[in-house]
Amino acid sequence: MSNITAAMVKELREKSGAGMMDCKAALSECGGDMEKAIDYLRKKGIATAAKRAGRATSEGTVQSYIHMGGKIGVMVEVNCETDFVAKTDDFKDFAKNIAMHVAATNPVGIVPEDVPRDVIDREREIYKAQVLEMGKPENMVEKIAEGKLNKFFKESCLMNQQYVKEPDKTVADYLNEVIAKTGEKITIKRFARFQIGAE
Description:
alpha+beta; Helicase, Ruva Protein, domain 3; Tetrahydropterin Synthase, Chain A; GTP Cyclohydrolase I, Chain A, domain 1; 8 helices; Elongation factor Ts; protein biosynthesis; elongation factor
């Protein structure tokens, strides 16, 4: 396992669309051979998520999660390709788990592109002020602030977040696992989170 690098895992993820843990396992199983690892994932039905990216998702479910004695509530819409998959336990459990995850982590959006421009600008200005306060030279301010902004996206965007039930994977990894299991394209369309006392 020690000869499996992060770069190899990343390359296999990009080629296969499989989750990080599946890619690590496949590379480990195949002695670091990229082509064999792809075949290994395909045989297991995992390396197919990326191939389904272009398909339409017009079926799905809306699931809700109520937490803390009614103080926080979440509704999510998750879409898939067929009514058959929409009715499966795997699909419904995924939607419920995403609703619970949103209740716990309060993401700003699903992907970085969903974060409103004014929120990004405000965060960037705060980071710049923090960096200047630390006494860093002017020419480093922009770069450090950009790094902090990327960290903000990782922590604040649903797909980039560590999945609360299994922190060693991201929500995107979890989604790809369910895509591999169901054999269909699945998308998290939208969510709404309500919290008593919050605007």
